[in-house]
Amino acid sequence: MRFTPTKYTLVNVSDGHTFDDEGWSLSDPAAKSPSLVRAVYQNRLFEPGSPRRGLYKYADWLPVKRMLRGSHAPVTYRSKGLAAFLGMENLYITFSGYWPKIGAKMETCTFKETEAFSVCARRPRNDKHVLVVQSAGNTARAFARVCSDNDIPVVICIPQDNVSDLWFLRRLKSCVKVIATPHGTDYFDAITLGEKLCKDPRYLAEGGAKNVARRDGMGTTVLSAVEKIGRIPDAYFQAVGSGTGAIAAWENNLRLIEDGRFGKNKMKIFVSQNVPFTIMYDSWKAGSRELLPLAPEDSRRNAEVILAKVLSNRKPPYSLAGGLFDTLKDSGGDMFKVTNDEIVYWMLQFFNTEGVDIFPAAATAVASLSKALEEGKVGPEDTVMLNVTGGGMLNATKAGFSLKEPDLVLSPDLPYEEVVAAVDKLF
Length: 427
Fold this sequence. Notes:
Elements: E1 8-12, E2 18-19, E3 37-41, E4 75-78, H1 81-86, E5 90-95, E6 98-99, E7 104-105, H2 112-122, E8 130-134, H3 138-149, E9 154-159, E10 167-168, E11 176-181, H4 187-197, E12 203-205, H5 212-218, H6 220-229, E13 235-239, H7 244-259, E14 268-274, H8 279-285, H9 296-305, H10 324-331, E15 334-338, H11 340-354, H12 360-374, E16 383-388, H13 393-396, E17 402-403, E18 408-409, H14 416-424
Parallel strand pairs: 5-16, 8-9, 8-12, 9-11, 11-18, 13-14, 13-16, 14-15
Antiparallel strand pairs: 1-2, 1-3, 4-5, 6-7, 10-17
Helix pairs in contact: 2-3, 2-5, 5-7, 11-12
């Protein structure tokens, strides 16, 4: 299928400075303070393409140079079961996972596929760098699958305590290498390890929330919802570890307002964290743009306790311009905290009412929707988008799966030269 690279420029959120993408720009080189950059697309109208393009049906609002094999877009449908259980009239569920009954076919069962297909397609076909991705779990699985299927060399850094998320339906190709930090470490340790590896010019940092391709890939969840509903929702719910998905939702809301055909409202962004890993919740409730202090040992202990392991980033993009703090302020949103027991309850209720299993992070969002209704922050008649970020594992793994063991276990405290030398040997 023929494809023309998307045309766009980049803008510094903090001061409006516009500049050209050098190919993998993660920030504004002229920035005077920390800020995200945002893609400004030549096509200002939301015009989805053919469903046969998978995720790339939304390519006009993705900073991509090509299409990769095997992508699928999120699927939005109007809820009946959960909506009735909660007493809601207009609940729309955007489902990213494997549920062929509704047309959802992300075999890694996570919306992190939207990131991977967008980020990897931002790179030109002839790029010789080895991509480096840091993950708490689901992102690792998604990038591993996408890179394996499309022959893209990648090193994935993940805490060893989270490698149970590296399950796959098919064997990965040798272009995918997994490096783990030791037992007892957390996501930030994996980030540190990846940063050391990227000091060598042969390795390319994926960039996390700073990568416009990652955010705009995740933002396709909102595009899916608006395509189905025909208007911008009144409210949006998602659980967050970094908050990148919620930032992406807000950014596409702003693009849709500029289009003008889907309403002019800013949907209220409601996000949630899993107790006791609540650094962003605690900071938000304290009215603080800056993250409250969190000692590394406390972060690691809290990450071990939570059921939704992927919600455990102790250095999220919360404070900088265009980050989660600004997202919540501008949208009039709020944050919730959810216990492990509440997560289990809503995993069961979602299965009972909707007929599919969901991951703990997605159940965290469902729990927060229930809390928002109880507190009157959304009404039963409001049009609500619930971002179910992962599910359908029972459907996907009926024929079995295998776990990918780490190729190396390295301490994040190692000098970068030793990290690079050890990883080089894998290639």
